[in-house]
């Protein structure tokens, strides 16, 4: 068992980054508002994004370098595009995941109801953890977090299914109103995660390969697929929780973090019993803390390497600078937009979906280029899935922009 657990690494970091807002908030909202009607969107998003996420560890294991170095090989404008897109969204993304985590922490621990206080505490704790342990600590912690999350979520779904007395409708729907379309795009934007996480994945894989000489391409593929499948399954579970517990109630979510978290937990306990509080609260907090921790590590890690590649210079405390900037920027944003949690989330997720075609094209072009070893290039099935994915992401993005 110990040897099996040791095989996991970047794949679970991917799961930790992915299973958060997209699952806890967006998937639960999807289930609450549409029942099981948006399962088609969840499945298609996971299917068509898969190759572009998979290309991250594939490229890193085949070349020994990150996707960022690959982007530079495609041309400096590609790397500059990544730098600017990431800088434009990383603060809103971190703010969105941190405020949800803070709201759940306030309800779970009860020490303070102030979301700003909890946001500062969570940001400081995460920053210290990353500075102290960097990748090794993150790798170890995430294995425990994902295990706890999976157990809690599965338990919650089973309890909800057993106690549900309403007929279950699996009819699939397509939103027609503007608000419904906006939510659909936001839902798919982070399902299972924004595509720029493929860059983070390549950085984590490279780091894992550096500290573990036995981490080869086969283990990397196994690790990634386990992490990816976990995000798909837990996404379905969170939709199920929303559909089984909330869909029949007619209630709507509040925009504030503390209010959302309290409402999220109370809806479960009202139907499942007060004894379910710990299970629901712990599952939610675990999911969000894992996302907060991994995104707080990954964005600075990516920006530090991008700056190094663009300038050709090694800056002292490069990672620490971006980590500090992101932490301060996150807390500053939350001080001004504390009551607009839902707006922050929708902005971040919609931007992620609109930029997804660019990352898809970058990643696919890179793994098909002369910079990729011939024996590591994708096969026919992956080529077909990649082209289909680019068409799917681009088509939905263009349709959304014209629709809105």
How does this model look, in words?
- The protein has 15 helices and no strands.
- It has 404 residues and is an all-alpha fold.
- It has a single domain, classed as Hydantoin permease (Orthogonal Bundle), CATH 1.10.4160.
- Helix 4 packs antiparallel against helix 10.
- The chain is globular and about 60 Å long.
- The protein starts with a helix and ends with a helix.
- The mean pLDDT is 83.
Q: Summarize this, please?
A:
The protein is mostly helical. Helix content is 80%, strand content 0%. The chain contains 15 helices and no strands.
- The gyration radius over C-alpha positions equals 20 Å
| Distance N to C terminus | 51 Å
The number of distinct structural domains comes to 1
Mean pLDDT: 83
What is the CATH fold-level name? Answer: Hydantoin permease
The first-level CATH class is given as: Mainly Alpha
For the biggest sheet, the summary is: none
- SS summary, helix count: 15
Beta content: under 5%
Described by the principal axes of the CA atoms, the overall outline is globular
Provide the succession of SSEs: HHHHHHHHHHHHHHH
């Amino acid at each position: 068992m110990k040897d099996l657990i040791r095989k996991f690494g970047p794949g679970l970091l991917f799961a930790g980054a992915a299973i958060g807002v997209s699952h806890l908030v967006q998937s639960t909202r999807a289930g609450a508002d549409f029942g099981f009607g948006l399962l088609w969107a969840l499945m298609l998003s996971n299917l068509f994004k898969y190759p572009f996420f998979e290309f991250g560890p594939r490229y890193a294991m085949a070349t020994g370098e990150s996707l960022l170095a690959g982007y530079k090989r495609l041309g400096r404008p590609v790397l500059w595009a990544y730098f600017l897109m990431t800088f434009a969204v990383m603060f809103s993304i971190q703010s969105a995941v941190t405020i949800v985590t803070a709201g759940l922490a306030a309800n779970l621990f009860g020490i303070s109801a102030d979301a700003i206080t909890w946001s500062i505490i969570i940001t400081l704790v995460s920053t210290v953890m990353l500075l102290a342990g960097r990748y090794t600590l993150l790798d170890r912690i995430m294995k425990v977090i994902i295990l706890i999350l999976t157990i809690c979520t599965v338990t919650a779904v089973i309890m909800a299914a057993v106690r549900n007395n309403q007929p279950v409708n699996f009819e699939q729907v397509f939103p027609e109103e503007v608000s419904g379309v906006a939510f659909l795009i936001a839902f798919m934007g982070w399902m299972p995660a924004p595509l720029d996480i493929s860059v983070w994945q390549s950085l984590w894989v490279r780091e894992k390969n550096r500290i573990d000489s036995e981490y080869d391409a086969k283990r990397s593929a196994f690790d990634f697929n386990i992490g990816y499948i976990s995000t798909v399954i837990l996404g379905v579970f969170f939709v199920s929780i929303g559909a089984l517990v909330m869909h029949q109630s007619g209630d709507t979510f509040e925009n504030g973090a503390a209010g959302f978290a309290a409402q999220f937990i109370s809806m479960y306990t009202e139907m499942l019993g007060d004894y379910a509080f710990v299970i629901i609260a712990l599952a939610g907090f675990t999911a969000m803390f894992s996302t907060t921790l991994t995104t707080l590590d990954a964005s600075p890690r990516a920006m530090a390497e991008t700056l190094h590649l663009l300038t050709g210079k090694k800056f002292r405390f490069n990672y620490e600078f971006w980590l500090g900037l992101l932490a301060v920027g996150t807390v500053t944003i939350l001080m001004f937009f504390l009551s607009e949690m839902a707006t922050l989330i929708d902005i971040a997720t919609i931007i992620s979906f609109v930029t997804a075609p660019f990352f898809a094209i970058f990643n696919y072009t890179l793994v098909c280029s002369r910079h990729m070893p011939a024996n590591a290039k994708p096969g026919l099935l992956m080529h077909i899935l990649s082209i289909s994915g680019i068409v799917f992401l681009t088509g939905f993005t263009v349709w959304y922009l014209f629709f809105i």
